[in-house]
Amino acid sequence: MMKRVLYFGNPYRLRLNQGRMVLFSEEENNLNNRIEGNTLSIEDIGVVILDHPQISLSIGLMEALLENNVALVTCNGKHLPQGLLLNLDGHSLQSRLFRAQLESSEPLRKSLWQQTIKAKMNNQAAYLEELGLDAKPIRHMIKQVKSGDPENTEGRASYHYWQTVFQGFDWNEEFRRGREGAPPNAWLNYAYAILRAIVARSLVGSGMLPTWGIHHRNQYNAYCLADDIMEPYRPYADRLVRKAVEKFGPSDDLPKEVKAWLLKLSAITVTFDDQTSPLMIGVYRTTASLARCFEGELRRIRYPDWGLDVEL
After folding, report:
1. CA atoms of 80 and 214, how far apart (whole Å)
2. For residue 268, what are the CA distances in angstroms to 134, 143, 145, 283?
3. How many domains does the chain fold into?
4. Integer Cα distance of 189 and 178 in angstroms
5. For 311, phi and psi rounded to 5 degrees?
6. 81 & 106 share domain
7. CA 202 to chain centre
8. Does 153 share its domain with 121?
9. Phi first, then psi: what are they for 274, rounded to 5°?
10. In this structure, are residues 21 and 14 in contact, taking their beta carbons and an 8 Å threshold?
11. Are 21 and 12 contacting, i.e. CB atoms less than 8 angstroms apart?
């Protein structure tokens, strides 16, 4: 079932009542004075983004959200996602799947990373082609990706991609991707943080440990596997950001209307073998196939092929 991504940017009090999230204004905390119409079934929620220092959650609500595998994202003073809280017990066979993941062979992990990079580059090239931009260098490099990508073909492809994807905008003819860079880098950061939460949530739901990656190995990163598996989905976030730039114009800030626009990410259409689904469901198909790879049932991860741009 498709889950909702919720954003809270006002000082609400969030409480649990009969299996539902109930919203109160900061001044009110009485069930008789709750905000009219603002109750949500916990079962319908996938990600909750908390973006105000005066938001409060009851322990009962937090417990219910985590039991239903909801990802809780907290934002910093710049309104960028900073923290991610996930369920520690997201699958009935979690111990067995953890063991399979941790004991996976290096050749398997290198093969899975090769598949991941090829899928990412294919989607990057397809998006450039959709825009009428030059994708030939990336198409050529896809054929060069070896097991484990020891020659960092991904990095060379990404350099061409970022030099190309925002062409046509007078405000930024030579875009450079960087967390602290010029617009629309802040919007990309926000979109990627949402995507990371969706992928991490799905990994936990598929019984895997988000920390233990197939390629990323940063000892300070608690979500290495999420960062690996989200790679082929990044171009979908890029497309949403580019459309936001076209719609709202570039900005160093993150206006509320842009945040609302980027929350569409979970519901955009992705394609698997000519079958379409919302991105959040597509991510679960990917993580479920990865779990089967670790258990020796499959040798390939299911990643989406670039599909038509379906407006929400």
Report:
1. 27
2. 25, 29, 28, 12
3. 2
4. 9
5. -70, 140
6. no
7. 10
8. yes
9. 70, 5
10. yes
11. no
DSSP sequence for 124-181: HHHHHHHTT---HHHHHHHTTPPTT-TT-HHHHHHHHHHHHTTTT-TT-SS----TTS
Whether 163 contacts 174, CB under 8 Å: yes
The residue among 115, 126, 120 whose CA lies nearest residue 308 is 126
**CATH code for position 79:** 3.100.10.20
3-state secondary structure of 18: coil
- Whose structure tokens read 């039991």? 67
The tens digit of pLDDT for each residue in 171-210 reads 556 778 887 878 899 999 999 999 999 999 999 889 888 8
Beta strands in the chain (DSSP E): 4-8, 13-17, 20-24, 39-41, 45-50, 56-57, 71-75, 81-85, 269-272, 275-278
CATH number for the domain including 173?
A: 1.20.120.920
| Domain region containing 24 | 4-85
Q: What is the pLDDT of residues 32-79, one digit of tens each?
A: 444 445 788 999 999 999 999 999 999 999 999 999 989 999 988 878
